[in-house]
Amino acid sequence: MYCAGPDFAAPGRNDRATWSVVAAVLSAGVRYDGYDSCGCGRDRKFRPRTRAELRARREYAARHELPLADALSRRDPWRATPR
To answer: How far apart are CA 72 and CA 59, in angstroms?
Structure first.
């Protein structure tokens, strides 16, 4: 069992594709938190929702030798700074 974070919204029980994405995000050590790293903001952070988004971020992380957690946390991994 994982602590997914306070902003986690569980997908439907039979939505196996989305559950596989959630499992990949959590196993990478990324939680569904809305706080900035400094603790001052309360905006919901981006997390991949589809297998295509997950696959694109995995490829980006491998290509640029980044930690997977960093690539999964970015709305658009091709930007220099996460949003």
So the answer is: 11
